[in-house]
């Protein structure tokens, strides 16, 4: 934002979470006035330490299922537990956060000039039968399983937001985010990267679920946030579609659907465990535990659309991203206990 220009306001729901807090920092760097909302279900105010020192950041303790009284030109809807352990601990809260959260934001945005960037997920593809997954794939989701509160909640939110776009012209941009990791993940997050790193740093065996041959594609948080910001920026997109942002009466809605954001490099979970052990320099054991129900066998984004529309191109490979994440976990563990355990 140029000097002297009025600051635009960005609202980030789920601001105290892993991705939300990185987004807040990046938006402050870009010159936005940033309002963060979070109910701290899985978030941590410690993630907002840097933002809290910035006079342009404002935190509201709140639940997105209730009405939202903040008006912002740009809304990033990131509120929702994302780790299977957490989202399955309160399935009702997970499903209602996705669906009612999206509804409240549409109510806020309707009739106003406002862009909603929504954090959807690769989980909308379920246990995919098409590989890699393009946005045109409709998915293979169990509607009544243990993961359904998350998967179907996210699918329903996508439906609701697209209906609002068609019916009321709400400018909606949907990011289908694939497994993202990095500094600030909670110790007890429960997702595989943080589990393996915490286990390795504590000298405990790594818990590999199933045979470890299932795959995921891991994106470092910095790359992901760049993709989210590119998706939020109206100008290049509108230019691409021949619209001007200030053109009276031109609904500033780029005619594209959801966009996959992730790093297409695919690894088995066993390969991930071995990489973590190489980085931590540990010869710890890998132990097997049962594969959770409906655990997808494979996952890899087709990012052609993100490349073409947004110029999105993840730069940080797994080894470098894991190294940076390990350094962050080591520092936080050392803060907790002088022995780092
Ligand atoms: P996270 O659990 O660290 O963050 C979620 C945040 O939302 C937390 O701060 C939590 O307290 C808050 N929250 C939950 N319910 C709320 C409610 N009802 N009202 C207000 N705040 C609420 O998870 P994350 O990894 O940062 O994920 C953020 C978003 O990105 C989620 O919507 C998630 O579905 C999506 N996403 C993340 C990934 C990933 O790999 N990290 C992948 C796909 C999608
Ligand atoms: N996983 C594992 N050990 C763990 C946690 C997860 O082997 O301690 C596996 C899990 O079964 C899945 C993969 O790692 O196959 C990714 O799990 P995560 O919970 O990170 O994300 P998601 O399943 O939602 O992609």
UniProtKB/TrEMBL annotation:
An annotated Gene Ontology molecular function: NAD+ binding
GO cellular component: cytoplasm
Every NAD-dependent epimerase/dehydratase domain range: 10-233
Requisite cofactors: NAD(+)
Pfam families: Epimerase
UniProt main location, coarse: Golgi
Membrane association type: Single-pass type II membrane protein
SUPFAM superfamilies: NAD(P)-binding Rossmann-fold domains (SSF51735)
GO terms under biological process: D-xylose metabolic process; UDP-D-xylose biosynthetic process
Span of the signal peptide: none
Domain of life: Bacteria
Keywords: Decarboxylase, Glycoprotein, Golgi apparatus, Lyase, Membrane, NAD, Signal-anchor, Transmembrane, Transmembrane helix
Compartments (UniProt record): Golgi apparatus membrane; Golgi apparatus, Golgi stack membrane
InterPro entries reported in the protein's UniProt record: Epimerase_deHydtase, NAD(P)-bd_dom_sf, UXS-like
Entry protein name: SDR family oxidoreductase
Organism: Polyangium fumosum
């Amino acid at each position: 934002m140029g000097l002297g220009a009025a600051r635009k306001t960005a609202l980030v729901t789920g601001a105290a979470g892993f991705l939300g807090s990185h987004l807040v920092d990046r938006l402050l760097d870009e010159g936005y006035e940033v309002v963060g909302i979070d109910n701290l279900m899985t978030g941590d105010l410690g993630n907002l330490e840097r933002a809290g020192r910035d006079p342009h950041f404002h935190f509201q303790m709140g639940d997105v299922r209730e009405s939202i009284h903040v008006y912002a030109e740009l809304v990033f809807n990131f509120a929702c537990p994302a780790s299977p352990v957490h989202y399955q601990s309160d399935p009702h809260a997970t499903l209602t956060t996705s669906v009612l959260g999206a509804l409240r934001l549409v109510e806020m945005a309707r009739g106003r000039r406002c862009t909603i960037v929504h954090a959807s997920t690769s989980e909308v593809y379920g246990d995919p039968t098409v590989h890699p997954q393009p946005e045109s794939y409709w998915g293979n989701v169990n509607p009544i399983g243990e993961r359904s509160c998350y998967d179907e909640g996210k699918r329903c939110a996508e439906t609701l937001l697209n209906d609002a776009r068609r019916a009321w012209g709400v400018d909606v941009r949907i990011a289908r985010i694939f497994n993202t990791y990095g500094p600030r993940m909670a110790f007890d997050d429960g997702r595989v990267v943080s589990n393996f790193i915490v286990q390795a740093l504590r000298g405990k065996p790594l818990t590999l679920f199933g045979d470890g041959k299932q795959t995921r594609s891991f994106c470092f948080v910095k790359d992901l946030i760049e993709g989210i910001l590119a998706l939020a920026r109206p100008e290049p997109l509108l230019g691409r579609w021949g619209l001007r942002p200030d053109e009276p009466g031109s609904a500033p809605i780029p005619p594209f659907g959801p966009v996959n954001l992730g790093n297409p490099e695919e690894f088995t979970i066993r390969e991930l465990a071995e990489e973590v052990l190489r980085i931590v320099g540990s010869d710890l054991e890998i132990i097997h535990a049962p594969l959770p129900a409906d655990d997808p066998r494979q996952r890899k984004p087709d990012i052609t659309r993100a490349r073409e529309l947004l110029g999105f191109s993840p730069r940080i490979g797994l080894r470098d991203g894991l190294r940076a994440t390990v350094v962050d976990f080591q520092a936080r563990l050392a803060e907790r206990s002088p022995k780092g355990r």
